[in-house]
Amino acid sequence: MILSGASAGQGCGTKAGIGHDLRLIGNALLLSILMPSNRPFGESRRAIETALAFCERQDARLIVSDNARDPQKRAMLRDASARLTYLEPEEDGVHANLLNVYAAADTEFIMMMGDDDEIFVSPKDKPLALAEIGEDYLGVRPLVAVANSEGRIIRVKDFAIEGETPGARVMFYNERANGDNAAYYSIFRRKPYVDLHRFFLLHHPLKGGFSDWALACAMFACGKLVYDPGIVFKYNYHRWDNDEKIAAQRAGLFAAVGLPASAERFGLLFLYLDLLILACRKSSPLDGAGKRGLLVEAGGPILSGFCRRVAGEAVDFGPDATALAASITGETLPERQFDLALKMSECVQPGLEARYRAFLEFAIAN
């Protein structure tokens, strides 16, 4: 049992140059797996054990931030392995765990992992050497096996994200995602990932769990991801594996941040606004041309698709949203369309437009 033994070799992270392999470079590791956890030990043990075994094979580190308040889990993990950094935030909730693992990571690359997922080194393919990835690559997409509540693999995600423009990468991903956001669990360069997610958690007006799509797309906008069949990630999709569960989960995500039940139908509007504000903030890795291209190449189709839905469901959306959607459709300037989309957020909840405009102004300055 891996949790009963310790292993040597944990070091502090230092950026590595092209041409090295994935082993230790001096005393530095290249990869940390970040696991926010609030499940008790019995429910999270499999995820932790597979992550530690992977770290042993790949000379990586596992950072667990745990607020399950489970004495057995604490006792088992506190000194389980030199490769495991075990943290307990004082605060409860997922945001405390996320900020905790972001702060603890110092390697060039990181990978998020749920405490009910599993990760393995392929028995057939050798994982890519992270230090040899080109500078225009933001990270690595593992082979993702999506599992249902019975543990059965229902689909496999085995593609790179390598479009030449930010908008092309975002649209490619949305076309290939097939209903789940499993690519969120990829290996990313730490700094752009942590900068984006801290910005979201500290400044977004809602901080909703439904924004994971916008966050993933904002990352893909900033760089390519090479596909690596040498890493196999088993993504536990049990809470989303049928229509009833999907409806309940989505309703819960919007309700959790104080939005009315009707907010769910505005999901594409949130994706559009969040993607563009996050990816085009002042501190974004994208240059001016990349930001403008994203607005047109990805923002345009996303917003157009939403407006078509509003027009087709006018009774449900109401006259104000329907009129704004018609105005957006008749507008040719992408910047003007964006402004009208901000206005439409007021149709979700009174006061939301002002909150989003304040967020936009902060993003422009930061």
List the helices and strands and how they pair.
Blueprint: E1 31-37, H1 41-58, E2 61-66, H2 71-77, E3 84-87, H3 94-104, E4 109-112, E5 118-121, E6 137-147, E7 153-157, H4 166-176, E8 187-189, H5 190-203, H6 212-221, E9 224-236, H7 243-255, H8 267-279, H9 288-312, H10 314-317, H11 319-330, H12 334-344, H13 352-365
Parallel strand pairs: 1-2, 1-4, 2-3, 6-9
Antiparallel strand pairs: 4-8, 5-9, 6-7, 6-8
The overall strand count is 9
Basic shape: globular
**Largest sheet data:** 9 strands, mixed
Output the helix-strand order.
EHEHEHEEEEHEHHEHHHHHHH
Strand content: 15-25%
The oligomeric state is: single chain
Low-confidence stretches: 4-27
Structure description:
There is one protein chain. This protein is of the alpha/beta class and 366 residues long. Helices cover 45% and strands 16% of the residues. It contains 13 helices and nine strands. Strands 1, 2, 3, 4, 5, 6, 7, 8 and 9 form a nine-stranded mixed β-sheet that branches. Strand 2, helix 2 and strand 3 form a beta-alpha-beta unit. Helix 6 packs parallel to helix 8 and helix 11 packs antiparallel against helix 12. About 7% of the residues have low confidence.
Give a summary of the structure in a few sentences.
The protein has helices at 41-58, 71-77, 94-104, 166-176, 190-203, 212-221, 243-255, 267-279, 288-312, 314-317, 319-330, 334-344, 352-365; strands at 31-37, 61-66, 84-87, 109-112, 118-121, 137-147, 153-157, 187-189, 224-236. It is globular. The protein contains 13 helices and nine strands.
